[in-house]
Structures are given as structure tokens and as C-alpha cells.
Specification:
The chain is an alpha/beta fold. The chain has 2 domains: about 5-135, Rossmann fold, CATH 3.40.50; about 170-275, LytTr DNA-binding domain (OB fold (Dihydrolipoamide Acetyltransferase, E2P), Beta Barrel), CATH 2.40.50. The chain has 8 helices and 15 strands. The protein has helices at about 15-25, 40-50, 65-75, 90-95, 110-145, 150-155, 210-215, 260-275, and strands at about 5-10, 30-35, 55, 80-85, 100-105, 170-175, 175-180, 185-190, 195-200, 205, 225, 230-235, 235-240, 250, 255-260. The strands form 4 sheets. It has a 5-stranded parallel beta sheet with strand order 2-1-3-4-5, sandwiched between helices. A hairpin with a 2-residue loop joins strand 6 and strand 7. Helix 2 runs parallel beside helix 3. The radius of gyration is 31 Å and the shape is rod-shaped. The model has no long low-confidence stretch (mean pLDDT about 90).
Length: about 280
């Protein structure tokens, strides 16, 4: 199915306007919304209809094409793609300064119009791709706690940016603020009801997430469950100690002592021996 380009034609000369409309009707991808005989009328329609594309005359009484675009911006309306259509070539440089997608001289022939529409389709496709990329990047940033800019740089370099790549930061919302906590700084995590306590250095952050969800996000080569309600960063472990009662405890580099449950004891001991 062809994606329709919602289009507006603006020209104070009725013959020129109708001639362009007739030519545009030959293109299936063009959906003509309305013809406007003045910039004032066009401003109202742009605000109401939010067209994808405007074929715009420059010299019109009352308000010219450039002034119309300034008004669209001033009103905060969505800026459509713009193709200037004029009998004069002296405005070409100014037209591209306002980022017009094309500049057509009257009378417009079919071949030149087809080239312009092809350029418009490529531009719309690029915009859609950019929107999709931004959406994906934002989702990855939310999932990993990584900066959008950093993700874009890795995308540009061809690096894998899937969520399966374990995050370098975790985003924690607290009291209306979002704190980015570096994964390597996390020493241990323990459960407190429906919340997780993230211990990093001298700070403790509260995160509303289940232990299972959090465990799945963390690199298992670095983070290990040592208890039903505790995960430890093995890089911060100083030693494993056994007690007379048969219990095992991990001693972290900061002196913190954490109990290791029997079901995780053998795995933790093996990991420490192999480090």
C-alpha cells in the first residue's frame, strides 16, 4: 500500500494553482488536502490539517511565501516539507536557506515534478527512519541507563547495541530525580520488600524492581546471587570465610560481611577459586 503524502497547494493565481493540482493528481502517492489562494488561508489550514507537504508560491499579496513559513514557526505549528513554485529564479538561494526541499519554476512540467516528488519521498523515508532510530535509542537508554549520545556513537561505529549487551549504568528514579549509577561501583544488592537496595560506595539507592528482573539485567560474570534476597558484585569480594556453625560469609573490600546461603555456597566458592 502506497503511503500517501498529505499535500497543500498555495498560490494566489488560480490558473497556476489549478494547473499544478492537475499534474499532482497524476501521482498516486499524493493526497491533495486543499488549494489555498492566499498565505493567510494556508496558515489556518496548516495549523488545522498539519500537511506533510506544501507547494508554495513566493510572491503573493498580503503575505508572501517566506513570511508564511515564519508565521507557521511563530505559531508553533508542525513545519511541513516545502517546495517553492514560482515564476522567478532570484529567490532560489533564499529558498534553500529556509530549508525548502525543492524549487520549481513555472510552468512546472511533469518530468521535473516527478523528480521533486521522488526527492520528497526519500526525505520522508529518512525522517521516518530517524524517528524510529530515536525511539529505539530511547528504549535502549531506558533499559540500560546508558546515554543516548553514547548509544548513537556505538551505532555509528557498527557496534552491537542490543540490550543483551550488559549496561554500564543503571538509571534509578528517586524523589523526582534520575540518578545514573555506574555498574562497576555497585558492591551488593539486597531486597527490601518490593524494592531493591543498590549499595554503591557510601550511597544506597532504592529501585522498584524484582530481584529476578535485576539479576537478568546484570552480567552474570560479575554479579552473582549469594542468597535468596542478595546479589553481590564479585569484583568487590575480598574473601570467602567459613564459620564454626558451617555458614559461609563473603567479606567485601569495604569490610561489609554478607551471608552466603547453602544453595549458593558451592558456586560462589568455585567462582572465587577460578578468579
Amino acid at each position: 500500500m502506497i503511503e500517501k503524502i498529505r499535500t497543500l497547494v498555495v498560490d494566489d493565481e488560480s490558473l497556476a494553482r489549478r494547473g499544478l493540482v492537475v499534474r499532482l493528481q497524476e501521482f498516486d502517492q499524493i493526497e491533495l488536502l486543499q488549494e489555498c489562494h492566499s498565505a493567510r488561508e494556508a496558515l489556518e489550514v496548516i495549523g488545522k490539517e498539519q500537511p506533510d507537504l506544501v507547494f508554495l508560491d513566493i510572491q503573493m499579496p498580503g503575505m508572501n511565501g517566506f513570511e508564511l513559513l515564519r508565521e507557521v514557526q511563530a505559531h508553533g505549528y508542525k513545519m511541513p516539507l516545502v517546495v517553492f513554485v514560482t515564476a522567478y529564479d532570484q529567490y532560489a538561494i533564499k529558498a534553500f536557506e529556509v530549508r525548502a526541499i525543492d524549487y520549481l519554476l513555472k510552468p512546472v512540467d511533469h518530468e521535473r515534478l516527478a523528480q521533486s516528488i521522488q526527492r520528497i519521498e526519500k526525505n520522508i523515508a529518512a525522517r521516518a527512519q530517524k524517528i524510529q532510530q530515536d525511539r529505539i535509542v530511547n528504549m535502549l537508554a531506558e533499559a540500560t541507563g546508558e546515554d543516548c549520545e553514547a548509544i548513537l556513537k556505538r551505532l555509528a561505529s557498527g557496534e552491537d547495541v542490543s540490550v543483551a549487551r550488559y549496561p554500564e549504568h543503571i538509571a534509578i528514579k528517586e524523589s523526582g530525580e534520575i540518578t545514573r549509577v555506574a555498574i562497576h561501583s555497585i558492591e551488593w544488592i539486597d531486597a527490601a520488600g518490593d524494592y531493591m537496595c543498590i549499595h554503591a560506595g557510601s550511597e544506597t539507592h532504592i529501585l522498584r524492581r524484582t530481584m529476578k528482573e535485576l539479576e537478568e539485567e546484570l552480567n552474570p560474570q560479575r554479579f552473582q546471587r549469594i542468597h535468596r534476597s542478595a546479589i553481590v558484585n564479585m569484583e568487590h569480594v575480598e574473601k570467602l570465610c567459613s564459620r564454626q556453625n558451617g555458614e559461609y560469609h563473603l567479606i567485601l573490600r569495604n569490610g561489609k560481611e554478607l551471608k552466603v546461603s547453602r544453595s549458593y555456597k558451592d558456586r560462589i566458592k568455585k567462582l572465587i577459586l577460578n578468579q
